[in-house]
Each structure stands twice: as C-alpha cells, then as structure tokens.
Amino acid sequence: MEALTLAPHHALVASDQVAPEAMRDFFDRYYPMLGEFLGSVGASPLAARAYYFSPPGEVFDLAAGFVVPAGDLAVISPLVGDIGDERVTLRAFDSMDVLTHRVTAPYEELGARWESFSRDALTAGHSFAGLTFEEYVTMPGGEEAPVTDLYIALS
Question: What residue ranges of the chain have pLDDT lower than 50?
C-alpha cells in the first residue's frame, strides 16, 4: 500500500449505474467504443480505468474509460457528442491524495482484493473520500494474470 498525490486529469468515460452482473457487458461495450474513438482522432490514452463513485451495493455508480493527455483535450472535447451516446462524457478529476495497491489476479478475484485493501487502509487509520478506481496495467490474455492498480481517494 502506497500513498501518493495524483495530478488533475481528464478521462473520456461512459458513466451509468450498473448491476454487478451487468458490469462485464458494460465494460465490453464501452472500452472498445471509446478506444476506437480516441484512435480515430489520433489521441493515445494514458490509462484504462474504471471509476467507482459509491460503495458496492445492488448497483455500482461507475464510469469506464481512458485517461487522456492534456494536449489532446482540444481535439477530443468538441467531438465527444459525435459518439452519439449520452453516457459518454469528458470528465475532469481534481488533484487527489490516494492510496494505491497493485494486484496480479484474474478479474473475478478483484472484489476480494478490494475488500482486503480497504480493510488494511481503514486499519491503518485512513479516511476515504468516496471515490475508488482501478487502472488496468495489463489486460487478460495468455498465461499471465492481469495486473491492476487499485486506488482509494483519501479525505
């Protein structure tokens, strides 16, 4: 577990409230769509992330997408509406203090990894701001389990 400060950033995301059993379909729909859009305008994403704006429950209030370079905002911003999906926006995130933890595990195990990470952070005396997110360092495929960085925004 490491504490750090993330710089302000923008992400092209699709946002919705999604039931846990529908998350895979949501991700499978929007990551390719947003990646294709970014490629079509010549933007290279900095990271693939899933942002969670509330604790897990019957639905997740989430956003899935890509952190985009500040230098590409002038190209991306006026074209976001051309995607034709009201769930897709260019979202600004302020600088934030976070805890991060890297895991190497199949996606099916991320829930348990989140529980352990959250419990350890609370035990260490940290207070959460409500936002958590995952950054997908590597994608699934081949023999290796994917690498995912977990983040908890601190209050």
Answer: none
